[in-house]
Amino acid sequence: MWSAAVARAVAINHSWVAANQDLAMALLFGIGYAGIILEESLAFNKSGVGLLMAVSLWIVRSIGAPSTEIAVSELTLASAEVSEIVFFLLGAMTIVEIVDAHQGFKLVTDNITTRKPRTLLWVIGFVTFLISSILDNMTSTIAMVSLLRKLVPPSEYRKLLGAVVVIAANAGGAWTPIGDVTTTMLWIHGQISMLPTMKSLFIPSAVSLAVPLALLSLTSEVNRKGQESPNVLTSEQMAPRGRLVFSVGIGALIFVPVFKALTGLPPFMGMLLGLGVLWILTDVIHYGESERQKLKVPQALSRIDTQGALFLLGILLSVSSLEAAGILRELANYLDAHIPNIDLIASAIGVVSAIIDNVPLVAATMGMYDLTSFPQDSEFWQLVAYCAGTGGSMLVIGSAAGVAFMGMEKVDFFWYLRKVSGFAFAGYAAGIAAYLAVNNLHFSLPTTLAQAPFLSGS
Which pLDDT tens digit goes with each residue over 289-334? Predict the structure, then answer.
């Protein structure tokens, strides 16, 4: 009797899900995302919630699809696209971990010797900006906040320097396809390409950092008299052949877009090539050195953020299920009808990314708008890359860099909101204005030049 009742309940629920697929998937995604946002309060790991949400959504999609075969085909295609991003990030994180294990980043940080608070503010900002254009923003933040602990004693000023690191890491990651997860996603899927993106977004990203730096330079914490910073402490020595590992590791990251241009193969293949070269190199240079096992790749693999990679996997698979069901296309049509300006849509994505993780936001945007709506390197996709990358700086919880800083320096959410959010928003808005100005100049410049007397031929 019980088995018959259970079978009847399953059949009824199966019919309801099939008839109300969109509603069921929206509810599941909403509940799952609430669990991710409230991770600390509920004591559930967001990676587990993300994976559970992904599988649940695809089960509903398989019920609501015209046939199971169609759902499986959609899942196979989605898995291939998602795997490219996950493999790319796993390779990049491992390379960075190997370089860090050899203390390779000391080549950069040991050259920061200034003791003047205002000068140090700008130096820290732009060093982080440049580093995060190659590394991911969370790794850059961890490295630079660790440096600040050696440069500056615990104080309000050090907290402000840490906030500058967060803003700079997000700004630096926005203008290169390998500097941030969201720009990497857009690059791998073909919404943006390497050189046009770098040329178009460098100035807006630099402006989004320069404006907060200029405003913070006027604050009392930075201009306090008699404030001095000690020299960098050399508490850790660079590992043997650390310079070589640093050069090869950074070279491998920079070579990825070159590999894609030369071979036409996906970027993750170039990243795996770089990891393979570095793996063999470290095996050779540390051969027979049993006390240096921590410098080799197997140990580095045990230290990378595997939980973060699984969270990304769950989020991307979840969003791909909504795309397969056509829900994201319906949302895009709604936005187009009510917000016809694409600049406003992209700007809104950046503001929302201060509250909600930018990875699912960008993944959803990619599902809402395809390359027929907006071609590669169009203004919309470049603005999405900029806004999603820098918008997270407006709140300390809005980016992986901010979360890392909050954990390392025990910074309070409301302290950041009170002291930094306004400056970060000013930089964000100024960067959008700079992009629109540069973009309009780009289109008007050829006409202006053609009318010049020495070029017109008349």
Answer: 766 677 788 888 888 778 878 887 888 888 888 878 888 777 767 7
How far is the CA of 283 from the CAs of 245, 292, 401, in angstroms? 11, 10, 32
Distance CA 303, CA 39 (A): 22
Q: Please state the pTM of the whole predicted model.
A: 0.68
State the pLDDT at residue 449.
Answer: 36
- Answer for the pair 287, 80: CB distance below 8 angstroms, yes or no: no
Buried b (16+ CB within 10 A) or exposed e, 275-284: bebbbebbee
Q: At what angle do helices 306-324 and 46-64 cross, to 10 degrees?
A: 20
CB atoms within 10 A of CB 219: 15
pLDDT in tens, 171-223: 998 998 878 878 888 888 889 988 888 988 999 999 999 999 999 988 877 77
**Distance, CA of 137 to CA of 141 (rounded, Å):** 6
Q: Give the model's pLDDT for residue 280.
A: 92
Q: How many CA atoms within 13 Å lie on the side-chain side of 162?
A: 30
